[in-house]
Amino acid sequence: MAHTFLLEIGLEEMPAHVVTPAIKQLVKRTADYLKEQRVDYTDIKPFSTPRRLAIQISGLADKQEDISESVKGPAKKIAQDADGNWTKAAIGFTRGQGLTPDDITFKEIKGTEYVYVDKFIAGEPVAAVLAGLKDVITAMTFPTMMKWSTHHFEYVRPIRWIVALLDADVIPFSILDVTTGRNTRGHRFLGTDVDVATAADYEADLTAQFVIADADKRKALIKQQIEKIAADHSWTVNIDAGLLEEVNNLVEWPTAFEGSFDEKYLTIPEEVLITSMRDHQRFFYARDASGKLLPNFISVRNGNDHDLQNVVAGNEKVLTARLEDAMFFYTEDQKKTIADYVERLKSVSFHDKISTMAEKMARVTAIVSVLAKHFDLNDAQTKAALRASEIYKFDLVTGMVGEFAELQGVMGEKYALLQGEDPAVAQAVREHYEPISADGALPESVPGAVLALADKFDSILTFFAAGMIPSGSNDPYALRRQATGIVRIARDQKWSLPVAELAIDFIAAEDTANVAPKLDQASQIDAMVTFIKDRIRKILRSAKQRHDIIDAVTAGSSSDVLQIFTAADILASHAADDNFKAVIESLTRVIRLAQKAPAELADATVDAKLFENDSEGALDKGVAEVVAAAGKGLDALYASLADIQPTIAAYFEATMVMDKNDAVRNNRLTELSHLATLALTLGDLDQLVVK
């Protein structure tokens, strides 16, 4: 007989962002538990609201599957002594299986007899198994945890009730002072407590108490209500998926309503209005058919339409207060110049172990000058990037950003334009924060991309030099995100970005401009390169690149971000070539032998007079061809390395590299070192798995 089981964890209101991940976690943990316990079922249906996490399991089997298996033990010669008595090995084996030596039989495998026992374990009734879900509940983890009362147990919010019903029967267990039952709670204001008769009645019983427990149904209803209001007024409403998810996890019985604000606030930049409505009040904003922002919004209450006019008035009052503040700050901010704000940054700390914000901008200006030259920017791009670097943090000390921190950069662009800055400068001021998340939008302009790189490089170098390197999950200054930004920008712009070499130039430029921090940045260059390569690794893994190729390209000699990605693409594109194995094995042998070259040979030249066979001359000619090809890019480099593979093979066939004669040996090692240096540009090829 198939059964239906209901588990509901009743809680104090959870933060909206926790609800969806939490119910997904409960479903997965339950599915894993049932699989481990050998219990068959048809489906697990999730339910979630701000006050509950629930699952309804349908098609549950009566009991666990029985286990009937033949278990292999030690060899007979180990299980019995010379007199045929059971040894400790045999006794221990059977005890571990819950049996005795009397249950042993022997089976022959490839001429050797082994101990076997036939083991049968009857499945437990499903009711007994389901009681173990207590451990599933208590094992759950959340981004924020709390204790309550005198308990030491931590959970996302205090547990107030638990429903556990197998069909019509309560499955008994307790968590702290809460014991399972059949009583659930309806809407906090509209509903009452209700006893659920059977697990199958759960959703209907809650609906009667003004709780739509199915999150998907609740979300669809919210969307439908918003679309109706918009259609009634001929509005265009962007139903942002993230906002819809958040609102859905704040309500149990949704009722959408419309509100408005005074048109005078439309003189404020719309980003401020949208931030006030969407981010602060969780309102959906409206536009007309032409795309113009309207003085209207749509919100969702957790309740019915009773006295809805009071709810509308309350929401309008709260929004108006925020917009009044915004209007004040917008007006007051324009009374000062950008120069005034930049001057104030001299007393604003970037970090107390590093510098002020003004000093950071001075360093970034020096870095921008290096990058502008490296990327060969034109005069207009260079001028815009440098001017932006001199002012780009000024909006941090404006009243608007003080009130709406999420608008930093956005207000910088607005105010820069109002004060007559070049649009390219204003755009770079806004774009320097991008990307603001691992997969966020990237700067679209060249000055913006350069400024974003410079700002992120300065942050990573200075924080590393100050000893604040991220470890484990600890990254309070978002340096991993900034490193990912560097990688993504370089790749997006198709810019060569040799991190190690550029970092040296950055530090030198800061010294020349007398703006270097009192920190040892040079000692952290290698650590920074490794840190950025770790971000490259993560991006390549997410792109499903082969692990050995990732290991090879990130372990190579190059610190050029774009070159590393290109090398990965090239190796992946040639991995199926008929000669790939031979090429990689030959180059790997070259690299390994080159590692034996004394350090003083690093700048040595090859002396053809010391060649003792034709293969040495042929390889020297081949290396020259590879050098020429390397200047045309990594594609040409790999093709040239592949072309000389037969030459390398012939060389090793005819030549003993480690000759007894020092001069001959060193000459050969020098020749191989030159070739190895070229090959390592692609990566540490020894990491590649070739078959």
TrEMBL record:
Coiled coil: none
InterPro entries: Gly-tRNA-synth_bsu, Gly-tRNA-synth_heterodimer
Annotated SUPFAM superfamilies: HD-domain/PDEase-like
PROSITE patterns linked to this entry: AA_TRNA_LIGASE_II_GLYAB (PS50861)
HAMAP family xrefs: Gly_tRNA_synth_beta (MF_00255)
Quaternary data: Tetramer of two alpha and two beta subunits.
Protein known as: Glycine--tRNA ligase beta subunit
Organism of provenance: Levilactobacillus lanxiensis
Gene name of this polypeptide: glyS
